[in-house]
TrEMBL record:
Belongs to the ABC transporter superfamily. PROSITE patterns: ABC_TRANSPORTER_1 (PS00211), ABC_TRANSPORTER_2 (PS50893). This is ABC transporter ATP-binding protein. The lineage of its organism: Bacteria, Bacillati, Actinomycetota, Actinomycetes, Pseudonocardiales. Pfam families: ABC_tran (PF00005), oligo_HPY (PF08352). It is found in: Cell membrane. It is a peripheral membrane protein. Keywords: ATP-binding, Cell membrane, Membrane, Nucleotide-binding, Transport. The keyword Coiled coil does not apply.
């Protein structure tokens, strides 16, 4: 059953187009990784789902539905209810998502809808494996390490056992050991609560290990999606192939990583063709002026004029 449906979503920041017809469908219980270079539209997509786009952003086309309800048509009250009961967010900078003037215990209590006892708060903090929940509850955000602050943010995001958790690079600011611990925690808590995960990430190997499905974004569109292990092992879109080939560990010992040539596009409107065409090693004449349509190739949904070919086979 579909929980989240993004249909041809277009978002502009003034003269810059961040999403250029992004389309994505997520079923209940799925763990979906959204990958792509910086500027591909991942964070804008994540914010749009909860109606959290900044004032500078304007939705100029398409729509987002959560369990059949159109987010763009919701009143301010309905949006607050959506965020507090059905959606959970974990952001990249944990300190920035916490109120610096309020003790941690009070913030967790509010996330538990304000009716939580002290025991409830401490239990929630213990659930995210904080060593001394009572001390953490008495403290302020600036007194926590990055890993501790992110655990608090996770506790608050999961307090209402949301239907959908949107995790936007939640471990980017953490060291490698803490990163794995925090990711283990996120996925374990979500599995226990039956929460669907949408994980925005640059870490392709981790997405392949942890997610059931992956969606690859480029130029504000989802250019390929499908089972995570299959998409990253046998990509059908040239960008997915290039992205997977540029990851450390993707090449044999002694071989050089192959960087993707050129730069991601900065769009000022709808891309007239495939936005990856200027960087693509398999470009066709039609790519520059004809927008590719979605095709099913090898069990993947692919936006590419050459989708019927295994374009990633030679990477």
């Amino acid at each position: 059953m579909t929980l989240l449906e993004v249909d041809q979503l277009v978002v502009d920041y003034g003269a810059v187009r961040a999403l250029d017809g992004a389309t994505l469908s997520v079923a209940r219980g799925e763990t979906v990784g959204i990958v792509g270079e910086s500027g591909s539209g991942k964070s804008t997509l994540g914010s749009a789902i909860g109606g959290l786009l900044p004032k500078a952003a304007e939705v100029t086309g398409g729509e987002v539905k959560v369990d059949g309800s159109v987010v763009g048509s919701m009143s301010a009250r309905e949006l607050r209810a959506l965020r507090s009961t059905r959606l959970g967010y974990v952001f990249q900078e944990p300190i920035g998502s916490l109120d610096p003037t309020m003790r941690i215990g009070r913030q967790v209590a509010l996330a538990l809808r304000g009716r939580a006892s002290r025991a409830d708060v401490l239990d929630r903090l213990a659930t995210v494996k904080l060593a001394d929940p009572a001390r953490v509850a008495r403290g302020y955000p600036h007194q926590l390490s990055g890993g501790m602050a992110q655990r608090v943010a996770i506790a608050m995001a999961m307090a209402a056992e949301p239907e959908l958790l949107i995790a936007d690079e939640p471990t980017a600011a953490l060291d490698s050991q803490v990163r794995d611990e925090v990711l283990d925690l996120v996925f374990a808590l979500a599995a226990e609560a039956g929460t669907t995960i949408l994980w925005l990430s640059h870490d392709l190997p981790a997405v392949a290990r942890r997610c059931s499905r992956v969606a690859v974004m480029y130029g504000g569109r989802v250019v390929e999606s499908g089972p995570a292990s299959a998409v990253l092992a046998e990509p059908r879109h040239p960008y997915t192939a290039a992205l997977a080939g540029s990851v450390p560990g993707a090449v044999s010992e002694g071989q050089r990583l192959v960087a993707i040539p050129g730069q991601p596009p900065v769009l000022s409107g709808a891309s007239p063709g495939c936005s990856f065409a200027p960087r693509c090693p398999a470009v066709l004449e039609s790519c520059a002026g004809e927008r590719p349509r979605s095709h099913v190739s090898g069990g993947h949904d692919v936006l590419c004029h050459r989708a019927s070919e295994t374009v990633g086979a030679a990477r």
